[in-house]
């Protein structure tokens, strides 16, 4: 909203806070679906049966051009889930296959990934992770010469409903001119490399080290000499450790290795529905929470930062986890007031949280500083009750995908 006048931004912000919006329907389909969608720029991608369709928004953002920009096919059964990554669509199918589609060409590849339907996928830094009903999670390479090659197979003991790769080491640049400072706990660092990412200083102990020490930077000063003197982490076994590439570190080049991913499972065969795995070895790093009731499966989750994530599912709670504080107890939780399963969630990375419930297409807006729900929007009624399978929002609009319709809530022109 940078180019939007301040007065208009204030008006839209007040509409969100007060729940003032205009409801509309963007798309309808005759048969009941379980759609998934993604937004990118002025385009919307949505799954319908075994296809993924791309539509362009009209300038108002509250309507679509009826003719699809593209149709991506290849699965023999319904598309369960998909993500957009590096100009590709990575799709998970009920046929047990993963599809890789180039957005701006006709290139499509699919390969057998699991023995049963693939419920979820994620992709970052040239790595794909997938989860399935067959009680496994798998790690795959997206590299052209290794496409379809399974790097790790993880036995999860439970159906995997949701999966996400940590953004821990994405978009980090090494600075070859930066000399690592002297650390009182380690002594002078005569060799190695260092880089700054957000509020953290990453230091390798030598050019071939696999372990980087993570030092907390004072927020008022990004000078590397102003770091705190106590390492946040020096362990490979917890999520705050930074894992470097084997071999010499590439000065001045982008380093997109990611170190871990999280699975959300059914909580039937294993006591914890949230587990974090090492992406390089496939080994379990830790599990989140404790005392989950049987069946408290996690249907959706998302990272907000390398250290914070949100989860929701069958036990009717949204939970906010901060790995720096504790892996056994969430730092905040919100309960669905009508005891409904929560199918999906979305956040703006600040205070706004939106959730989709299992009955009557209820979308709820939450202020994360408060326990109680701010607003609820029932998008269907009896006898057409439907879960909200997926929701996304921009600064002006919220989009919710239900069994028969794609709904929009317009907060710009209520």
From TrEMBL:
Which keywords are on file for this protein?
A: WD repeat
Q: Name one GO biological process term.
A: SCF-dependent proteasomal ubiquitin-dependent protein catabolic process
* WD repeat placement: 111-146
Matching entries from Pfam families are given as: WD40 (PF00400)
Q: Keyword Repressor: yes or no?
A: no
Q: Name one GO cellular component term.
A: SCF ubiquitin ligase complex
PANTHER family registered for this protein in UniProt: DACTYLIN, F-BOX_WD REPEAT-CONTAINING PROTEIN 4
Recorded protein name is F-box/WD repeat-containing protein 4
| Organism lineage | Eukaryota, Metazoa, Chordata, Craniata, Vertebrata
